[in-house]
User: Which sequence fits this backbone?
């Protein structure tokens, strides 16, 4: 087993045709966009991918398309747990892994009911470890069907199994993340922060990368952000971080359709169709998102960042 690379891991959106069927050509365009932005890995079949709105065959088709198109350029991870019962999950976990992903991701809030204790979550994960040996895994604190943040104690146990490589953290609290990181230091279990406002602090505390949804609007800004971090260009990094934190407050509204509309406006040839209900934008909302687009253009020019969309 080997560690997953540090850096930018986009939570991939899914391209649909206007009839809401999978658009595999659009998925290739999206994948190429992330690669051009300097992505170090891909998280396919996640919440941003509208995974709960896909059927089993669509999930497999989506993941296979991404893995095949990446052609080993970067590793791919993908969600494999959609049931409470570990036995029901194992068959699908094996199918996902057989597509060529580096690790199969478990959803903390899918494996247990909200009122069930963390010990029950540990037991169900342990059952999966036993029934699906030798398959590298990850954990995702997905906000749906409810948000289940795991404890530093469980993080230590997961790292100790030697089977967990990827953790998508949605704690949104840099100090809480620091406590988790202390429990997995020097292990192959890497934490990737989903939250832009706490991203820089978490990197400085030892997080191995980021997986922000705003990366689906302007991934090249995050690619440049991590480049500045690696090169210790502190002043420029903190200036860019300030812009990204402010911009991030807008990207969550009407998501993921808002991301697709943004990419459309940027010239990426995909439809804005989604299966996730997102509501209708008012004139005010459209003006806010137009302002986000103008701010993106200004930031890209200010920091001399090349566009990843021709």
Assistant:
């Amino acid at each position: 087993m080997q560690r997953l690379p540090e850096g930018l891991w986009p939570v991939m959106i899914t391209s649909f045709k206007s009839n809401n069927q999978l658009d595999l050509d659009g998925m290739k365009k999206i994948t190429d966009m992330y690669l051009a932005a300097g992505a170090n890995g891909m998280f396919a079949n996640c919440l941003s991918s509208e995974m709960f709105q896909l059927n089993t065959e669509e999930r497999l088709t989506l993941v296979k398309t991404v893995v095949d198109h990446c052609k080993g350029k970067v590793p791919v991870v993908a969600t494999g747990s959609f049931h409470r019962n570990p036995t029901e999950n194992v068959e699908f976990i094996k199918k996902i892994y057989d597509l060529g992903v580096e690790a199969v991701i478990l959803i903390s809030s899918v494996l247990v009911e909200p009122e069930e204790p963390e010990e029950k979550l540990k037991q169900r994960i342990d059952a999966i470890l036993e029934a699906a040996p030798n398959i590298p895994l990850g954990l995702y604190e997905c906000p749906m069907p409810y948000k289940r943040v795991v404890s530093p104690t469980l993080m230590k146990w997961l790292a100790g199994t030697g089977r967990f490589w990827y953790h998508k953290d949605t704690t949104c609290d840099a100090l809480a993340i620091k406590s988790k990181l202390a429990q997995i230091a020097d292990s192959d279990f890497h934490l990737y922060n989903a939250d832009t406002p706490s991203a820089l602090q978490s990197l400085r505390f030892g997080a191995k990368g980021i997986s922000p949804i705003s990366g689906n609007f302007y991934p090249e800004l995050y690619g440049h952000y991590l480049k500045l971090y690696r090169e210790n260009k502190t002043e420029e990094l903190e200036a860019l971080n300030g812009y990204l934190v402010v911009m991030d407050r807008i990207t969550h509204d009407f998501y993921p359709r808002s991301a697709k509309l943004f990419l459309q406006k940027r010239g990426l040839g995909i439809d804005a169709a989604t299966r996730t209900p997102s509501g209708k934008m008012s004139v005010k909302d459209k003006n806010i998102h137009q302002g986000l687009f103008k701010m993106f253009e200004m930031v890209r020019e200010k920091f001399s960042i090349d566009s990843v969309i021709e």
